[in-house]
Design a protein that fits this description.
The longest helix is centred in the C-terminal third of the chain and has 10 residues, at about 225-235. Helix content is about 10%, strand content about 35%. The strands form 6 sheets. It has a 6-stranded antiparallel β-sheet with strand order 17-22-18-19-20-21. The protein is built from 5 helices and 22 strands. β5 and β6 (about 105-110) form a beta hairpin. With about 325 residues, it is mainly beta. The protein folds into 3 domains: about 45-115, SH3 type barrels (Roll); about 125-190, SH3 type barrels (Roll); about 195-320, endopeptidase fold (from Nostoc punctiforme).
Length: about 325
């Protein structure tokens, strides 16, 4: 299992994953089954994706996925409210799940709601949060009571199509537990159409300053590969979760620096076999990424800046 690179104040972690100094190819044997599954996955999806025929749906705003059935275990990823998941196995108070990108991890049983053959936010009834965060209320009023729930970008909700109750400002939704709630129209969208590359790059700036979170996949905190995976998802493309697997994905074309175009993906590390970080090229030598280097968070850096100039080991373009 690879160790993180020691760069300035970057922490070293014995279970290097994702980025900023994420999982490396050295972990490949342990994850060989996952890698093969990811390489065979179809490339096109829409937004925050649920699995087909999910057994359960995420019932908390953001749920940590752990390597083992304990909150003392490593966080390997996260999954967002309203996302349907497979349940693979159970232990007392814990469930091992798989998400639509092929990732597996343990979550607290209380963080899921069993669907019992039903569905939540199916096609035609789904909306997603379209702001960095949104408050949901028990009534269509922001001042009467505190929010019943706060959700991050991309979280899914099931709309209640009731012309008698929905207004120009407010939309009624059904929560995972069946409770009715209200959200302002400007905070959600039912448009799941993929963005163009230029639209995706414009969107990326919306997240500048969002903090770095190990294993993070949300607007409350990304890690580096969680950030690039989210951006590509807006184009209707579901990449592998980790930076090393992204760089090795068979839907990627290797390119040279002289051929870089905005939207291309950049991979950093000590070698191509030890990818530890990723970002997205913006043009003019600049790239956007979520990093712990310098000041943690989503930021724009230059390829000629250190340490990035000495760590850039691979450049990729998604096949069209």
């Amino acid at each position: 299992m690879g160790h993180e690179l020691s760069l300035d104040n970057e922490p070293s972690h014995p279970h290097a994953h994702k980025c900023d100094f994420g999982r490396t190819i050295a972990e490949g044997l342990r994850r060989a089954g996952l890698a093969l599954a990811v390489l065979l996955m179809p490339a096109v999806v829409r937004a925050q994706q649920s699995v087909d025929h999910p057994a359960a749906v995420v019932a908390k705003s953001i749920v940590n996925m752990y390597r083992g059935p304990s909150s003392a275990s490593d966080v390997v990823s996260q999954v967002l409210y309203g996302t349907g998941v497979f349940m693979l196995k159970t232990q007392p108070s814990w469930i091992n799940i798989r998400t639509a990108d092929g990732y597996t991890g343990w979550v607290a049983a209380s963080d899921l709601k069993s669907l019992n053959g039903g569905s939540y936010a199916p096609a035609g009834k789904a909306v997603r949060i379209a702001e960095l965060s949104a408050n949901l209320y028990g009534e269509p009023d922001v001042a009467m009571h505190a929010p019943v729930l706060q959700l991050p970008w991309e979280a899914r909700l099931e709309i209640v199509p009731d012309p008698a109750k929905n207004t120009e400002r407010w939309v009624q939704v059904r929560l995972v537990d069946g409770q009715a709630a209200w959200v302002q129209r400007g905070d959600v969208t039912d448009d799941f159409a993929p963005l163009s590359v230029s639209e995706m790059l414009e969107l990326s700036h919306k997240f500048l300053g969002i903090t770095y979170t190990w294993g993070g996949v949300s607007s409350y905190g990304f890690d580096c590969s969680g950030f690039t995976q989210m951006l590509e998802r807006q184009r209707g493309i579901e990449m592998p979760r980790d930076a090393d697997l992204q760089a090795a994905w068979n839907q990627m074309t290797p390119i040279e620096r002289k051929d870089l175009q905005p939207g291309d993906l950049l991979y950093f590390g000590s070698s191509v076999a030890k990818i530890t970080h990723t970002g997205m090229y913006l043009g003019n030598g600049e790239f956007i990424h979520d990093t712990t280097h310098g000041h943690p968070g989503v930021q724009i850096s230059h390829l000629d800046d250190m340490p990035w100039a000495q760590l850039l080991v691979a450049m990729r373009r998604i096949k069209q």
